[in-house]
Design brief:
Number of helices of chain A: 29
Helix content of chain B: 25-40%
Strand order of the largest sheet of chain A: 3-8-4-5-6-7
Structural class of chain A: alpha+beta
Radius of gyration of chain A: 27 Å
Oligomer: heterodimer
Helix content of chain A: 40-55%
Largest sheet of chain A: 6 strands, antiparallel
CATH superfamily of one domain in chain B: NAD(P)-binding Rossmann-like Domain
CATH class of one domain in chain B: Alpha Beta
Distance between the termini of chain A: 42 Å
Shape of chain B: globular
Largest interface: A-B, 22 and 20 residues
Number of helices of chain B: 15
Strand content of chain A: 5-15%
Strand order of the largest sheet of chain B: 13-12-9-10-11-14-16-15
Number of strands of chain B: 16
CATH topology of one domain in chain B: Rossmann fold
Radius of gyration of chain B: 22 Å
């Protein structure tokens, strides 16, 4: 495919999207006109059509702006009449959180419409009889501050399970709100949120970069009185736009190249350490940094190590594999793929190049011809500013450097994301093999109990739509893995018990224990031998009960995810990484959650932490008891396994209490306690 | 809307929010005649209202006619199958024309209706009345004997329709004697008809002064599932023949005013067969579809065609040109859950993203277990589509049958 074809593809897509929006707006206007004409008693019957059409409009790019432009017509038609939204002066900002996360489409949409209407009021696009533009503005800044995470992360498990496609509506809404009323009103919360996200070191940082750019724009416009706010913004903005002496005023790439050309070694060294500090502080890489790295190989490896911020381990690795590193920099590091620098630095630090197959596998990656399908997918998602092979290589370096930064995007493919992360941790050359198969052959073949499974021949996977919101490696590999995973599940149909027992070890790798425990009875969905399950889990994983043996390989485990009210949401795949004492002396479980943001409130006081308790970048953590209370599946090695642990009844009762107060509340087996009505179906 | 005292005063028989809404926004005075459960709503919203419980005609029937007459009502308009004979009775009093009651009774009895059509020289399929299950088995056998089927050949189906129910309610297709056992007692007596292989369609015709003022052809894609208007160019090519069929029908049934909704078959040799005719608005929201493509309110048209004070200029000026003035094609699809257990409403992305998709009236499921459909049953809600090309629309409507809306 040539560059001009790619450009055509992008342009056509944009044109189609615009046409689609126009067609939907015609329908929205019609629905509003019908409603406006209707006599008062018939209006309620016209609302569903307006709401449903508005929902579809708001799913499109530019849809929220178009709805805001019709705010007065929406109000006049009587969409809010007879509801709380008819009197916006009494609306409570914190309730917006609940409404926008509802599974009920109409509730989400009417809340969004109300927000957009108030935005129009705040911008004085129309006069509301009950609310001044200042009041509306104040209300919206509160709503925005309360829902900031919507600006960053794709939907989490809870939203995906309950809202599906609908979850995109509040996201589009908040982007538009923030862009229109300005970020300066929520700048403090925004900065905190960016730091919280970046502490998890995700591979995908596009949204974070977008937000930082918005902050920079806010700061750039002189007419805003910052007052005391905006502390901490400097580091974020400068890490992207001016991390060093010579880039401080964001001189532009061409000008910076000229400056580099005339620098002596001392000046270069000064620049290099500036870049490295900024990068390791924030996890973000400035395009200038990429430029400098491309400039340096002509200089010395010492400067290169300085510029990557390497420790002794990383420097050794760089010196051993200098030719490979230079080749990687040449192919993967461009101002448009600056994050590759961070991936490279951390990969060197991990020392995985010393595993014999990794370096040759990277040489293969450097020369890997991509299939047309792979090229097309990369270009569609990331554009054609750099060749698709470079984009993929950036993704490979980032995944090898930040195995816990893999996110599943807004897709139900937690198992595939978990597998990628696990391989990057534990078996990096196997990951590179997968990438080669997927990118070059557009096919992956895995084996299940001796029979081969081809991703090409397998029918649909868990995801119904082709995912697009992923890092370059996941983008190419996940669709294959997802189909294979689903096919393995299909081959277990008819077996008694939970299919993960067989699928997990075959899918992830030999180190996933063949021993398997589950505390839910698959047929009834009720809790099953919970205490026994917990005793075995303690025996296998808790250092006080397993002979103080640290966890060796990352292990797949299954979690019953609950929402902040501790209600059951769904089953979710995670990786158990470490169980150890945290800095304050409590036993903690550290795990990887393929979700994009691991900091989640699971209700009943169970709040997953991502920093401050000895977590490595990308790890989530919970006190061991709380973790055990959300666990429903784990694997173990039956040969390295002792007696069920002599855990004190008191401790077990605490864990069981957490279970019974959350996802286990409706799953109590008859006889144990009163069972609630309705047996939930196992999934 | 401001009411014009020089124009007619109509009574709407039965409760239909869409009809009331249309009447409210039209220049005729109106009153709703409906069971007393509608009273509170009407009072709340200032809707003119007379309470009446429609049961079988009885000796109190004169009472409602007198009440309406005293109010100055000119004509009664039936909105549902069950109010058709009431309209006949009331109108024969209001308009001083006793024949109207007889005409209404014909419309309410599918068997009488067919005989009358036959007498008027209109082609109908083979039909008979059934009083019990034995009648049905006999008819099934006879029809298939006539078709020279041997024992063991698959039977041609027959259709069974309750005498006095609207549309697809109580409509069953019977292929084997076993299926006869599943018919409940209360569906007898009913009408049996031979099956006609062909193209089924419906007509909506507004009549005033004995003349057809607007004739729409509604094309069924799948009976009980989907319909669109105006009909595709292929079916519209039969319009002259269809129009002359309807004229024959109007004459045979002696219809001077109002609205009829007959159903026909065209067989492969271009022969038209009369199915049945109703003297009330059609189900499946064809009125809504007409408004979406032609822009006129079909209930306004209904009121106009019934009102004896409607002038010739007014009614000729009201209607657009058939087919020519239609802006594209509008169709709807009735959703039935396909799974036995459902938990939520989820409109398939391919449907929602289709440029023809307009809106839907589906609501989240009220119960988890789906009752098995017996006869054609009632759909759970409609999906509306509109677009420029009738073939695309047809394929799209047909395709919806293979999708799950409730999962």
């Amino acid at each position: 495919m040539t560059d001009s074809d790619d450009a055509d593809v992008t342009r056509d897509a944009a044109e189609q999207a615009a046409q689609k929006l126009d067609a939907l707006l015609v329908r929205l206007d019609e629905a509003l006109a019908v409603m406006a004409r209707a006599p008062a008693f018939a209006k309620p019957g016209k609302v569903p059509r307006v709401l449903d059409t508005a929902r579809r409009v708001m799913l499109q790019d530019g849809g929220c702006a178009a709805v805001a432009a019709r705010a007065e017509a929406i109000e006049q038609a009587g969409v809010f009449a007879g509801s709380d939204w008819a009197t916006p002066q009494i609306l409570i900002p914190s309730l917006s959180r609940i409404a926008l996360r509802s599974a009920e489409a109409d509730l989400v949409v009417i809340e969004a419409l109300s927000e957009l209407r108030l935005l129009a009021v705040s911008q004085a696009w129309f006069l509301h009889p009950l609310m001044s533009s200042e009041q509306a503005h104040h209300y919206l800044t509160q709503v925005l501050a309360l829902n900031l995470e919507m600006l960053f992360s794709p939907p989490g498990e809870a939203e995906r399970a309950q809202q599906g496609r609908l979850a995109q509506v509040p996201r589009n809404l908040f982007r538009y709100l923030a862009e229109t009323i300005g970020y300066e009103h929520v700048i403090d919360q925004l900065i905190d949120e960016i730091w919280r996200i970046q502490q998890q070191r995700p591979i995908q940082v596009d949204m974070v970069k977008h937000m930082i750019t918005q902050i920079a724009v806010c700061r750039g416009s002189g007419d805003i009185n910052w007052g005391g706010s905006g502390q901490g913004a400097d580091r974020l903005v400068s890490s992207l736009y001016g991390p060093t002496q010579a880039t401080r005023e964001d001189p532009g790439l061409e000008e910076y190249q000229r400056r580099l050309d005339s620098m002596d070694v001392t000046a270069l060294q000064y620049e290099a350490s500036g870049f490295a500090r900024a990068m390791h502080d924030t996890g973000l890489v400035s395009p200038y940094h990429a430029m400098m790295l491309r400039h340096l190989p002509e200089q010395s490896d010492h400067l290169l190590a300085e510029c990557l911020g390497l420790s002794a381990t990383g420097r050794d690795c760089l010196l051993c594999y200098r030719e490979l590193v230079h080749a990687l920099i040449d192919a993967a590091v461009h101002p448009d793929t600056a994050q590759a620098v961070y991936g490279l630095a951390l990969m060197l630090e991990r020392g995985i190049l010393y595993q014999a197959p990794v370096a040759p596998a990277l040489w293969r990656q450097l020369r890997l011809p991509l299939s047309a399908a792979a090229e097309q997918r990369l270009v569609r998602t990331f554009g054609d500013a750099v060749p698709p092979a470079s984009r993929l290589l950036e993704g490979v370096l980032c995944m090898m450097g930040l195995p816990l930064g893999v996110g599943q995007g807004n897709n139900p493919t937690c198992q595939s994301a978990r597998a990628l992360s696990m391989w990057a941790c534990n078996d990096p050359d196997y990951l590179l093999q997968m990438v080669a198969w997927a990118a070059r052959d557009d096919e992956i073949i895995m084996h299940f109990e001796g029979q081969s499974i081809s991703s090409r021949e397998s029918a649909g996977g868990v995801a119904t739509e082709v995912p697009v919101d992923l890092d370059p490696v996941s983008l190419l590999v996940v669709p294959h893995l997802d189909r294979i995973y689903a096919e393995m599940g299909r081959r277990c149909l008819g077996r008694e018990g939970d299919p993960h027992r067989w699928v997990n070890p075959e899918f992830h790798g030999w180190w996933s224990g063949r021993g398997f425990r589950i505390n839910v009875d698959v047929a009834t969905g009720l809790l099953h031998e919970l205490e026994d399950f917990l005793r075995h889990f303690y025996a296998a994983y808790h250092p006080y009960y397993n002979g103080n043996q640290p966890l060796i390989h990352p292990q797949p485990a299954g979690i019953a995810v609950t929402d902040s009210a501790a209600r059951f949401i769904g089953w979710h795949a995670i990786t158990l990484l470490r169980v150890t004492l945290d800095p304050s002396g409590n036993m903690r479980a550290y795990f990887y959650n393929p979700n994009n943001d691991s900091g989640q409130d699971w209700g009943d006081g169970v709040v997953v932490k991502t920093a401050g308790n000895g977590e490595h970048f990308g790890e989530a953590s919970l006190p061991f008891e709380q973790f055990a209370s959300r666990l429903y599946i784990f694997h173990y090695d039956p040969l390295e396994y002792g007696e069920p642990a002599q855990v004190s009844q008191e401790e077990l009762d605490r864990v069981i209490g957490y279970v019974h107060r959350s996802w286990g509340a409706t799953r109590l087996p008859a006889g144990a306690l009163q069972a609630e009505d309705g047996v939930p179906t196992p999934q | 809307m401001k009411k014009d005292p020089n124009k007619g005063f109509v009574a709407l028989l039965g409760w239909s929010l869409n009809a009331v809404e249309a009447a409210e926004s039209f220049d005729r005075r109106y009153v709703v005649v409906a069971p007393d459960w509608a009273e509170e709503y009407c009072q709340q919203h200032d809707i003119p209202y007379v309470p009446w419980n429609f049961e079988r005609l009885n000796d109190r029937s004169m009472e409602i006619a007198q009440t309406l007459k005293d109010m100055g009502v000119d004509v009664a308009i039936p909105l549902f199958e069950e109010t058709v004979e009431w309209a006949g009775a009331i109108n024969s009093a209001l308009l001083n024309n006793p024949r109207l009651l007889g005409q209404a009774m014909l419309m309410r009895d599918k068997s009488l209706m067919k005989r009358r059509a036959q007498l008027g020289g209109i082609r109908v399929g083979i039909f008979e009345e059934a009083h019990d299950r034995d009648d049905v088995i006999r008819f099934l056998k006879r029809v298939n004997q006539t078709l020279l089927k041997l024992d063991g050949d698959p039977n041609d189906p027959i259709h069974l329709k309750a005498f006095d129910k609207a549309g697809c309610l109580g409509h069953r297709v019977i292929r084997t004697p076993d299926e006869v056992d599943a018919i409940p007692d209360e569906e007898f007596p009913s009408l049996m008809e031979s099956h006609l292989d062909g193209w089924e369609f419906a007509v909506e015709a507004w009549i005033h002064d004995g003349k057809i003022r607007f004739l729409n052809i509604s094309e069924y894609v799948s009976l009980g599932y989907s319909v669109f208007v105006p009909a595709s160019p292929e079916l519209e090519s039969y319009r002259p023949q269809i129009r002359s069929q309807i004229e024959k029908l109007v004459k045979t049934f002696d219809i001077e005013f109002g609205f009829i909704h007959p159903e026909y078959f065209v067989t492969s040799d271009s022969e038209m067969y009369f199915g049945e005719v109703a003297y009330r608005p059609p189900g499946f929201k064809v009125f809504e579809l007409l408004e979406r493509v032609y822009g006129f309110n079909a209930y306004h048209a209904l009121i106009l065609s019934f009102d004896p004070k409607t002038t010739e200029e007014e009614i000729t000026g009201f209607f657009p040109k058939e087919v020519e003035d239609a802006d594209g094609y509008a169709g709807c699809f009735g959703v039935y859950p396909r799974r036995r257990v459902v938990s939520r409403l989820e409109i398939p992305a391919e449907t929602e993203d289709h440029p023809y998709f307009e809106s839907h009236e589906l609501t989240p499921p009220q119960q988890e277990t789906v009752t098995k459909r017996t006869a054609f049953g009632t759909h759970w809600g409609l999906m509306y589509f509109r677009g420029e090309d009738s073939d695309t629309l047809k394929t799209l409507l047909k395709h919806q049958e293979d999708l799950d809306f409730y999962v």
